[in-house]
Write the structure tokens for this entry.
Amino acid sequence: MRKYMEKTTNPCHVIICNKCGKKIDKKDGLQKEEVFHGEVRWGYFSNKDGETHTFDLCEACYDEWIRSFQIPVEIKEETELL
């Protein structure tokens, strides 16, 4: 969940994990940890036609979530980090 200061300027003020409610710390305006941001736009053949769902997960909640998958996520090592 992301909270914004003003709708016109759109700077993200606070990020909160939707699962556990943990507030993601910031220092000098930068996140101190990574989050998973999910967004899905539901279309035809779903019970959510026309809805857009967005959410954020802290790393611990993301790890817990993907452990429940029947087919593991594909993991690729990055050699260059930006």
In short: The chain has a mean pLDDT of 88. The chain is about 10% helix and 30% strand.
